[in-house]
Amino acid sequence: MATTIIDPPTLERLERTWEAPSGVRGWLSTVDHKTIGIRYLVTSIVFLVIGGVEALLLRTQLAVGGEHVLSAGAYNQLFSMHGVTMIFLYAAPVLSGFSNYLWPLMLGSRDMAYPRLNALSYWVYLVAGIFLYTSLPLGAMPNDGWFDYVPYASRAYSPGLNVDFYALTLLLLAVSTTVGSINFITTLFKTRAPGMSINRLPIIVWGTLTASIVNLFAVPALSAAAVMLFLDRRYGTHFFDASAGGHPLLWQHLFWMFGHPWVYVVVLPAMGIVSDALPTFCRRPLVGYTAVALATVTTGILGFGVWLHHMFATGIPPLALAFFGAASILITIPSAVAVFSWLATLWDGRPWYPAAMKFMLGFIALFVIGGVSGVMTAAVPFDWQLTDTYFVVAHLHYVLVGINVFPVVAGIYYWFPKFTGRLMDERLGTWNFWTMFVGVNVLFFPMHIVGLLGMPRRIYTYPAGLGWDSYNLIETIGAFLFAIGVALFAYNVWRSRTHGREAGANPWDAPTLEWSVPSPPPVYNFAVLPTVGSRHPLWEDRLGEGSTRSRLNEGPALPAGRETFATSPLDAEPQAVMRMPEDSYAPLALAAALGVVAYGLLFSLLWLAVAGAAVAAIVVIAWLWPDAATQLVGDADTSFGVLPEGASGRHGVGWWGMVGVIATEASFFAYLLFSYFYLASQSLNPWPAEGPGFWLPLVNTLILLSSSVAVAWGERGSRTGRTGRTRWGLGIALALGIVFLVLQGVEYSREQASATHDAYGSLFYTITGFHGAHVLVGLIMLAVVLVRALRGHFAAGRAEAVRNAALYWHFVDAVWLAVFTSLYVTPHLR
Amino acid sequence: MTKQPATRDTQRAVEQESASHEHPAPERGRAGLPALWFGLFGAPVAWAIQTLVNLPLAAHACFPALEPLSLPVVGGLRGMVFGVSLVVLVVAALATAVAWRSWSRTRAEHQASSGSGARHEQSTAALETGEGRTRFMALAGLMTSVTFLLISAVHMATIFIVHPCGL
Questions:
Q1: Which chain A residue has the Cα nearest residue B123?
Q2: Core-most of A200, A298, A326, B65, by most CB within 10 Å?
Q3: Which SS3 state, helix, strand or coil, does residue A798 take?
Q4: A709-718 long-range Cβ contacts below 8 angstroms, 24+ apart
Q5: Chain B 20-59, CB below 8 Å of chain A: which residues?
């Protein structure tokens, strides 16, 4: 390893600048991506263990026919909690853990683009997990499965708090996932090391990027469904009530529009782990980098077009099913591309087989088995035979355990030295691998057979003598064997933390940037920000690769504050020096406030929910209020020329974040409008029975459009430093927005429809109500920005907040045009 | 890692040198971003539209209310689905052609810098490397376009294989 040419005082200054405060204060306020990454990993693995214990109880109950270890009710709660825990609290968050820890190190940056948002993402995830598990002492754990189909989940058939816990947990997790995804996307496009063009990214980065973009468009479907479910159950709406114009299949559509893309969210980054780590142990680059990167993105896109294969048995006409059967079969193409790339890398490399490699090879085997059974169920007639049998349970577990758990364990063996500075025990690792690998196959392979023999899923017991007994007993033995493997893994982690062999910076002789820094990395990650010249910065000499040589130990230190480069999206050319925020309690406070809102809604304590929401709003405003550390202070003279301190417009992270928010919010409204037209198409009666008013909403439309003009006028003024014009523009827009809300209230008072009368009314008020809420949020933004304008916070070219608030306001207006056309114009076109 | 003290002048000189790194996309002038983005996402977007239009058409025509029908309630359903698919295939083919053009114009980008990959035949090197950014995007676009062209074609083929209402 070459030496770092940097003077000791600069290093000390970097240390002081990036270090979190000591003690509890630092523990609660830190925004260090490495700490947050480790927290994600530890918390998600704790949930993996909890979900695993639930699974062992289920398997104990099913070991022999007619068993009574669990009652039917307890079984229903446990299999639901097992699914919800594994899917939502383990499988995705564990991958966020890897990415949070590794991204800035792999990308050659000092932190994520939004360090505080990163902390918020974790805290909300933790709050959601705690919230869900408070259902345990109350004896009201979710009990309708992880996909929670209505009408089982409707109040009539599930009257307790069980499903309410489920719905509110999903909404909390949606917040966590969304802010985390926006953070990953912005980090990738804005904070890479100079020279790290998009063709030089590690594959795990492609995996997490794809998953994050998928999240922005998929999670709103689940949020919309969860909101509707909660309103149906608690406030008497009729979204899923067939007797009042609703439809149970609407839930299934929305759930699987989210659910299938989510499958790829929990596997693509895991596949990325293998694509990055496997070549290290083959001592050669990944064969087909471009193809694998592309396969990752293609799988993410295709994942949106296969949701109907979860609904093959719902009576949808054959041609419609055929479209989705075809897409579901062809999605194997990108998966096969990845598999063949790994095999070719093995074939052409000089592989060696430490524990991490064993887990990756095990993963490939399980991936192929799970993939093949997936293709089988993509064939519609075959799926009709298998729906709701244990064959499907076998398939999904081969996929999720094989493509998520095995790469995760492999990833921990691989990066544990980076996390802790010590290697995990290899002998224990071998035992760990074989117990898990044999266990998982003994556990899940017989499920294929017992499924083909007709055993339905989700039954708490079965009569002996149906030919299922021996298979179930074998499965239970496999489950305990697998659990022993997980226990060995946990023991290995625990022991190796303190007793493992010291690793050094790069114990595997790996090629990527994170291995260029000491293990564990210093708080500031890189003493000097690296400049990247190839895809494998640490293998350049032996490969002769790269347009130039990477500079890892020489370059700008940026010691003046918490600083890193803002770079261009494609070629990572430095555009600005970014000031990163300091540690803060705000993320924790906001997460706690959201938890209070959830408990308030759960127990119908409206005052508590409102209080939580008010605290959340105050925290957000305080969070966004500029502090000394992030004030824009001029220009910085760097080796890449004179760069502005703080970036503006598309160069800045604020713009990217706002675009992410808008993308996901727009998707939310798109799913609501889809629900409107779906139920309209299913309605046996005229939809709506009586059309809403037209002229008052038209006037309101003109008012809202005028406010957009005013905002645009003010925002343009801010670009040239005409602060008076900015103030007037914002002030006028604020007034017009308030008039809009007042007129909306007037319209409501005249409206004939009722939210609790039929599904039309439920949708009408939900869609316009959510839009009204967005107007309110936009007004608060405009008001805050106006106050800042009055206090003289902005200058020419230095008015990011104005630009972003204006962007949001235009979005709110654009959504209204879609709402107005759908709800107020189309009924009059009949 | 050991740390060596150095003067600020030395550090400054090193920084200036690092600024002279070669650009990762020297051929970017030979394939414009609109062409690269169209090559990458033209076919997937077209396929998404194909799915989102044809699904409700096919589903609603055979199951408009409470009972499934034996014949579509909409006349010329197959024709409509075929028409949509044909337009989509044309767009996907166009995206493939554009991606091919971008790829053929930039395939030599940084090829000499591909290290061991550059020792392979060009056809193999396409899989092995991708050191230039423009080249990478163009090749990726070509792969996406061909994949989604195939998927859209199979989607269209179902019209000739499956009866819309299954009877």
A1: A288
A2: A200
A3: strand
A4: A710/A736, A711/A782, A711/A805, A711/A806, A711/A809, A711/A810, A712/A806, A712/A810, A714/A802, A714/A806, A715/A799, A715/A802, A715/A803, A715/A806, A718/A789, A718/A794, A718/A799, A718/A802, A718/A803
A5: 21-26, 28, 44, 47-48, 51, 54-56, 58-59
Is residue A636 within 8 Å of residue A642, measured between CB atoms? yes
DSSP conformation letters of A598-658: HHHHHTT-HHHHHHHHHHHHHHHHHHHS--GGGS--EEEEETTEEEEES--GGGSHHHHHH
pLDDT, tens digit (0-9, with 9 covering 90-100), for A297-313: 999 999 999 999 999 99
Tell me how far apart the alpha carbons of residues B62 and B23 are, in angstroms, rounded to a whole number. 57
Round to whole Å and give the CA distance between A631 and B135.
40
CB A820 within 8 Å of CB A705: no
* Nearest residue on chain A to B65, alpha-carbon basis: A682
Residues 6+ apart with CB under 8 A from A178: A215, A216, A219, A664
Residue A109: what are its φ and ψ, rounded to 5°?
-125, 175
Among residues 59-118 of chain B, which lie with CB inside 8 Å of chain A?
59-66, 68, 77, 81, 110, 113-117
Q: Which residues neighbour B38 within 8 Å (Cβ) at sequence distance 6 or greater?
A: B95, B98, B99, B141
**Would you say A429 and A492 are in contact if contact means Cβ atoms under 8 Å apart?**
yes
Query: How many other CB atoms are there within 10 angstroms of residue A460's CB atom?
Result: 19
What is the DSSP code string of A181-199?
Answer: HHHHHHHHHH-PPTT--GG
The distance of B69 to chain A (nearest Cα, Å) reads: 9
Residue A567: phi and psi, rounded to 5, are: -120, 165
With contact defined as beta carbons under 8 Å apart, do A726 and A802 qualify? yes
Q: Do the Cβ atoms of B16 and A681 come within 8 Å?
A: no
CA distance B49 to B71: 25
Choose among A167, A156, A333: nearest CA to A242: A156
Q: Is the pLDDT of residue A285 over 70?
A: yes
What DSSP character marks residue A507? T
Going A715 to A718 to A722 to A728, the CA torsion angle's sign is positive
What does the alpha-carbon distance between residue A426 and residue B47 come to, in Å, rounded to a whole number?
48
Number of residues in chain A: 830
Q: Which residues contact A30 (CB under 8 A, 6 or more apart)?
A: A20, A36, A119, A583
Cα separation of A750 and A743, whole Å?
11
Helix residue spans in A283-331 (DSSP H): 289-302, 318-330
Contact yes or no for A637/A649 (Cβ under 8 A): no
3-state secondary structure of A456: strand
User: Token pair of A778, please?
Assistant: 């936009």
User: What does pLDDT average to over chain A?
Assistant: 93
β partners of residue B3: A4
pLDDT per residue over A91-129, tens digit each?
Answer: 999 999 999 999 999 999 999 999 999 999 999 999 999
What value does the CA radius of gyration of chain A take, rounded to a whole number of Å?
27
Half-sphere exposure of A313 (CA within 13 A, CB side): 11
Residue range A565-587: average pLDDT?
91
Alpha-carbon gap, residue A250 to A241, rounded angstroms: 10
Residues 6+ apart with CB under 8 A from A757: A238, A244
Cα A13 to the center of its chain, rounded Å: 35
- DSSP at A545: B
Across the range A364-374, mean pLDDT stands at: 95
- Give the H or E element holding residue A347: helix A332-348
The residue behind tokens 């499956």 is B162
Q: List for chain A the helix, strand, coil content (%; round to 5).
A: 70, 5, 25
Total number of residues shown for chain B = 167
In this predicted structure, the answer to whether residue B138 has a pLDDT above a threshold of 60 is yes
Instruction: Tell me the β-bridge partners of A636.
Output: A643
* Phi, psi (rounded to 5 degrees) for B114: -85, 10
Q: What is the Cα–Cα distance from A579 to A581, expressed in whole angstroms? A: 7
pTM value? 0.94
pLDDT value at residue A560:
83
